[in-house]
Amino acid sequence: MKTPLALAISAAAFAFTSAALADDPKEGGVVNTIIQPEPPGLVLGMVQNAPTRTVSGNIYEGLLRYTTDLEPMPQLAESWEVSDDGRTYTFHLRDDVTWHDGEAFTAEDVVFSADVFHRELNPSARAVLQHVESIEATDDHTVVFTLKQPFGPFLLSFEAGTFTMVPEHLYAGTDFRDNEHNDHPIGTGPFKFANWERGTVIELVKNEEYYEEGLPYLDGVNWHVIPDGASRAVAFENETIDVLPSGTVENFDIPRLAEMDNVCMTEEGHEYFSPFAMLWMNNREGPTADKRFRQAVMYAMDREFAKNVLWNGLGNVPLSAFGSNARFQNDDLEPYDYNPDRARELLDEMGYDGEEITILPLPYGETWTRWAEAVQQNLREVGINVETQATDVGGWNQRLGDWDYDLAFTYLYQYGDPALGISRTYLSDNIAKGSPWNNVEGYENERVDELFNEAATAYPDEEREKLYREVQEILHEDVPVGWLMELGFPTLYRCDVKNLVTSGVGVNDGFKDAWLDR
């Protein structure tokens, strides 16, 4: 039997599909939407957090897009070939693309973006680039990536947020993080940056010179910053806001909002990312450096309560490091079920003496705050002396980048393949200060490094699966991080906003195809 929320989703999906097929696109109009929290910056690749991806995926582009089945589609690359040995990827670029400042987009921009900009700044891209031997522009519109060895998920790497194309003529030879253009991002996408009134709104306007004929239909997109969750819900109710991207209202408001007239909802658009909530646990020092303490934390947390009460039953409680949407999950592992008695046994065994530890909530809204409070209560019930230290987004980024924490909430994207989105959290060569998105916990295990590196290039898939099963067994025992939730993130929108989700990254690039039936 379907729940009321599931019925609302089904009805919304039917209404969306039927209406989208019945009407022809119309030009014009501005969509008002929400970004929560306000992003720390808008230059993709330099900043990889979810709010930046959501806004800037409409400013910047990658070589490819992906369907909801994760099949590659052309974007800046109009076609590509893969050599028989799986080592050479040749991308043929469109010859009619310009940057928002009017300069031509060329193969040299691709080489600079991948081989210079992302190698320095982007841990997600670096995890892929370790398999790349060379990147060469053979002419103005052809780029050849030569791999050291075959790397199965390579074609999944070119989404805008992972391999963002940035303009070489504006960034080459500069201090990337201090570049003046960071405040006025220049991309190739369907929308151009117009204005950022901090704390209020980010305004994007139609790129009149966009290379895809007839697109975008919209005149612009306004991303409103409304810090209070209740106020965001009210803004949608009173029709000030047209689209609520995932995570922009509290989960307890979703069923009510989904039942309103002229409201549609979809859970599509997250297939590429597979958002996976985790609890960073500092493996370097203090009680959290002992794997028995980390195991105790897993047993102490009531994750089913979090799913059913805080997340409205959306999402899944993960078995271990590999989510159910990731390839090669080892489903023979023993789950860390809620077991306070076992948690207390482990704490006694390690001789935990009541040393205080701290939790950093993720500053993305009330649901995350409540979740931190629930985990704090769970840990106190088994005798862990824990306090919460709230921060804003900038402070959260800084604390994690400096490794200044004991426990901290986060969520990362798994990207459909362990070599892209999972291994980066556990590989020891991905430990580096300054980023909240790499191996932040400081986990080091030589065998895990070997298994992840070998599995990334093993052939065929049966060999990859054997290696990934072993690595999951080790991680399951060591518990480098706490595995919290495979997040379910619905998008709500007015039903007269048509064709909003057209790829596996949802609204992050969906406004290109969207139009208003008003």
Describe this structure in words.
This protein is of the alpha+beta class and 518 residues long. Among the domains are: 123 residues, Dipeptide-binding Protein, domain 1 (Alpha-Beta Complex), CATH 3.90.76.10; 212 residues, Dipeptide-binding Protein, domain 3 (Roll), CATH 3.10.105. The protein starts with a helix and ends with a strand. The N terminus is likely disordered.
Main sheet characteristics: 5 strands, mixed
CATH architecture of the domain at 275-486: Roll
Query: What gross morphology would you assign?
Result: globular
Structural class: alpha+beta
Strand content: 15-25%
- Give the CATH level 1 class of the domain at 275-486: Alpha Beta
With strands numbered from the N-terminus, the spatial order across the biggest sheet is 15-14-16-13-17
Helix content bin: 25-40%
Mean pLDDT: 92
* Count of helix runs: 16
CATH homolog superfamily of the domain at 275-486: Dipeptide-binding Protein, Domain 3
Which spans of ≥5 residues are poorly predicted at pLDDT below 50? 1-22
The count of strands amounts to: 20
SSE arrangement:
Elements: H1 4-22, E1 30-34, H2 50-56, E2 64-66, E3 72-74, E4 77-82, E5 88-93, H3 107-121, H4 123-129, E6 132-139, E7 142-147, H5 168-171, E8 191-197, E9 201-206, E10 220-224, H6 229-237, E11 243-244, H7 254-258, E12 263-266, E13 275-281, H8 291-300, H9 303-310, H10 340-350, E14 357-360, H11 366-381, E15 386-388, H12 393-401, E16 407-413, H13 418-421, H14 446-457, H15 461-478, E17 481-486, E18 491-494, E19 497-498, H16 507-510, E20 515-516
Parallel strand pairs: 1-10, 14-15, 14-16
Antiparallel strand pairs: 2-3, 4-5, 5-7, 6-7, 8-9, 9-10, 11-18, 12-18, 13-16, 13-17, 19-20
Helix pairs in contact: 3-4, 8-10, 14-15
